[in-house]
Amino acid sequence: MRIAVTGATGVLGQEAVEALVAAGHDVSGVTRRDSGIPIVEGRGGRGVVANVFDASDLARVFRGHEVVINTLAHVPVGMAGLRPLAWREDDKLHGEASVAIAQAAAQAGVHKLIQESTVFMYPDNGSEWISEDMPLSVRNQAFRARVREMRAAVDFAGSGRSAVVLRLGQLFGRDPQTTHALKAVREGDQILLGSPDGYITLLHHKDAGRAFVAALRADSGFYNVGGEPIPRKRWAKDLATEAGAKSPAKFYPEIAQSLVGTRLDVQRRSLRVSSVRFMNETGWWPQTGPSTPGWSRR
Prior knowledge:
The protein is of the alpha/beta class and 298 residues long. The protein has one domain (2-297): Rossmann fold (3-Layer(aba) Sandwich). It contains eleven helices and 15 strands. The protein has helices spanning 11-22, 37-42, 55-62, 88-107, 144-156, 176-186, 205-214, 232-243, 254-257, 262-265, 276-282; strands at residues 2-6, 26-31, 46-49, 67-70, 112-118, 129-130, 162-168, 170-172, 190-192, 199-200, 202-204, 221-225, 230-231, 250-251, 272-273. The longest helix is centred in the N-terminal third of the chain and has 20 residues, at 88-107. The radius of gyration is 18 Å and the shape is globular. The two termini are 27 Å apart.
């Protein structure tokens, strides 16, 4: 199958390209710069330069492909997310580029669009399980671009086309965000948001890459994709174990958490998310969990 992956030089995109190639697919990795071509080729794909904000340019690249997988994102690392301008690029990618990608895929005759999304769009639900039927909590301005992205994917699904939206758990693995967290744990700095008793649904990058392959078998719709949800206090211990620290990762005090602003406040939500629907439909299941030794080096 001929598949185009946008955001192919990012953490998620690279994992998607490698997993798709391993599964025997012909993969074009879309990058915005010539410097990204070696990165894509290093994962086994064919690098293609295109303007992800230009639907006409993207349609040129997408022609002849059966599937487009959009993994574009640019999330600020750590508490840099407190700065509003730090999210400008991420907002632009989700609110503008993702719309252009969906439109271009339709113009180019692509049959299927697979769109990356996030479980953080769900409301805090305490210790109760969250399925795909749970209404979203997206009035927070942080989700304005994500909502546009989601609507573009829904609009794509028609005239014999299908769209699969994957609501991914919090990513962890060999990436800048996790590397930053492990460093903070080693140095004894505060790093975690939310309640220690609240739930977090994690997803290793390797498993995310495999999920994009599995999504090729999924019907149109929304799917949660994550590992077994765990209390944040357990995640604090797992972080410490992986970091080689003596004490669990530290939480920010409640007073400090109340001041993090709308962008980071959603990360305080307790999200016990079920991925059973995706597992049952595609056969996918997570292979790396937060207690798996050496997960940060995989």
